[in-house]
Every structure is written in structure tokens, then in C-alpha cells.
Amino acid sequence: xxxxxxxxxxxxxxxxxxxxxxxxxxxxxxxxxxxxxxxxxxxxxxxxxxxxxxxxxxxxxxxxxxxxxxxxxxxxxxxxxxxxxxxxxxxxxxxxxxxxxxxxxxxxxxxxxxxxxxxxxxxxxxxxxxxxxxxxxxxxxxxxxxxxxxxxxxxxxxxxxxxxxxxxxxxxxxxxxxxxxxxxxxxxxxxxxxxxxxxxxxxxxxxxxxxxxxxxxxxxxxxxxxxxxxxxxxxxxxxxxxxxxxxxxxxxxxxxxxxxxxxxxxxxxxxxx
Length: 273
Prior knowledge:
Strand content: 15-25%
Number of strands: 7
Order of helices and strands: HHHHEHEHEEHEHEHHHHE
Structural class: alpha/beta
Largest sheet: 7 strands, mixed
Helix content: 40-55%
Strand order of the largest sheet: 3-2-1-4-5-7-6
Shape: globular
Oligomer: single chain
Mean pLDDT: 93
Number of helices: 12
Distance between the termini: 26 Å
């Protein structure tokens, strides 16, 4: 991910696991479940809801080997592992995210099905054709070298394997308003259009199976979120633990960009020939 130090610095927050555990203990939680941390561990638009939709379309079973690229603190990986009983590996640039993901999997009893590795998505430490499914949500916006990113995904994916994504794209390459969750300024944001994305994947031997426009659902999600009373929109446990004190500003700006037609969201499945 480029630039390495700047991107990691943007996402780093000290002591995420400890802060989250403190909040949960204050709520009287002793045994932690995935549901207890759902508000924070799905770090993307529409949260756990869209992850479950994508997983249902993916055709997982208990023999599927999954790689989550940009796995954050591990929410989608734990959801897939828990629901389908399959082995999920996550890779993320941010050391604190990887540490927190590992500890949360242990807390929720999913340490045997999930494994998290800190690493660069442009140079992943996995063998060729190792995974049945590669999964990514809201990651490529920070990566300038798109060709290198999707080439690595193609490399580690088995023939006939599926690439599943949910991402934010530029609508027409017009300038967007900052800050947004993935970038405080333009130096960290590398957006592409859906057409450019499709062209890159096809050049890597990945054929489109299905796509779904997620833009309207994103607007509805953020509109409802912003309409909530302050006490409800800033719960004790939420993604502010990952985004920071300016969470509301970043989410509001993301919604503005989508409403102004500068950004669009899409999910889909491609298959390796």
C-alpha cells in the first residue's frame, strides 16, 4: 500500500483491543460474542449486513479456504468462519488492527478458524493458487498500484476460484471532498472508476460473474445514521474506535460525495479462468 508509512499512520489507533474490552466490561459483558462487537468490527459501509449478503452469494462451505485482504480487526473473517465453518486468513497493513483481530478471535472462540497476518497487499506472503476465495472490502482506495494489487490477488487465487469485493469507486474522476474514512486528504486517496477496475481484472484473467450497484443502499444507510440523535449515533461501542474523533465529519463527507455523484459503490464476484 502506498505510501506505506502514511497509510498505516492514518489507520493506527493505540490500544483498540484494550479500549473495546474496557467498554464491554463496563456493560457487564464477561463472555464476548461476535454480536457484542458487531458495531465496531465491520469497518465498511453497511457493516455486517452487507458482509452477510456477500457471503450468502459466495457459496462458502467448510472446505473453502478464504483470504480477506485488508481484514481490519477481523469482523468479516470471523463472520465467515463462524457461519460456514471454513478457514479464513486475514492480511492487513496495520499492526494494531492485526493484533486486535487476533485477540478478538481468541475472545470469541474463533482462533482455530481464523489467522491474521500483518503484511503488504502488493507482496503477500502466500503461495501461488492457495485460496479458493479472495475477499476484500473498501481497501483499494488507498492503493496507487492497482495492477500490482489485483495481480497479487490473482496469483494467490486457485484456478476457478472466486474474487469477491465490495468497494468505493470514482464516478467520473472528479475531485472529492475530504476528509473521508480512508483519507484525510488527497495524498492518501487513489480512486478508480468501475470501468477501469473491470479492465484491470479482465487483464489478469478474472472474468465477471455478477455485480451489484450498492450506491442507493449506501445513501440510505448513511442518511439513517445521520438522522439519529447524537446519543444514538455515537454509541459506547462503534467505529469511532477505528476512525477517531472526527468520525462524524468523515462519514458526513463520504455521504456528501456519494450524493453529489462523485462516488459510487459496487459489489461483485469475478472468477479466475
